[in-house]
Structures are given as structure tokens and as C-alpha cells.
Amino acid sequence: MRDGKIADFTTYGYRDLENKMPMTADTIVRVYSMSKVITSAAVLQLIEEGKDQPDRPVARYIPELKNLKVCTEERPKIRFWSDATNAITIKHL
After folding, report:
1. Domain boundaries, position 72
2. Hey, is 10 helix, strand or coil?
3. Which DSSP helix (H) or strand (E) runs through 46?
4. Catalytic residue numbers, as ranges
5. Within a domain: residue 9?
6. Buried b vs exposed e over 50-73: b needs ≥16 C-beta within 10 Å?
7. Among 25, 28, 63, 89, which is least packed, fewest CB within 10 Å?
8. How many structural domains is the chain composed of?
């Protein structure tokens, strides 16, 4: 998409290899871990446009990530927790 319009749309490969049925614009496929790449590209675009910063805490967008605790020691059936000394940032993700 560019400026709210489809800039390019091309399909490649087969949706059914055995029957040589090509991919179409409405073929539904699983993207698995590709969502990470797409999200990363979108965040990098926001940074490039100056709309976000890599060192900005993620808790700004996800409040549940404020005031995190970290495991500092683990023994059988017991864990010791301390306040995190650093916030998780966009760069960390």
C-alpha cells in the first residue's frame, strides 16, 4: 500500500502444488512467524519518520509492562524476584 492505494499486487507459486493451481489474490495462507518481520518493518518506518524512538519504553504503549519484576535467583520450588532496573524499550523488542 502507498498513500492508501494498492501500489503493487503480484502472486507467486501454487496454492495446490499437486494440481498446479496457482496462487490467487484471495488465496488464504498462514504467515507463521512472518508477523514479526512485518511488525518490525512498520516500527522501523515509524522511527525513520520521526514518529517514534528506539529507546522509548514499550510500557508507554503496553501499560502492563510497567514495574516489571525479574527473577534474580532460582532454587527448587522457590524463585526470588526484584524490581527490573531497566525498562523494556522498542529497541529491545
Report:
1. 14-83
2. coil
3. helix 34-48
4. 33
5. no
6. eebeeeebbeeeeeeeeeeeeeee
7. 28
8. 1
What pTM was computed for the model? Answer: 0.57
- The pLDDT tens digits of the residues spanning 60-87 come to 999 999 999 999 999 999 999 999 999 9
Q: Over the chain, what is the mean pLDDT?
A: 92
- Which of these, 50, 70, 49, 67, lies nearest to 58 by C-alpha position? 67
**Is residue 7 domain-resident?**
no
Q: Is residue 2 part of a domain?
A: no
Distance CA 78, CA 51 (A): 43
Contacts of 88 (CB under 8 A, 6+ apart): 57, 58, 59, 65, 68
Q: Tell me: the pLDDT tens digits for 38-68?
A: 889 999 999 999 999 999 999 999 999 999 9
Which residues, in sequence order, are bridge partners of residue 81? 71
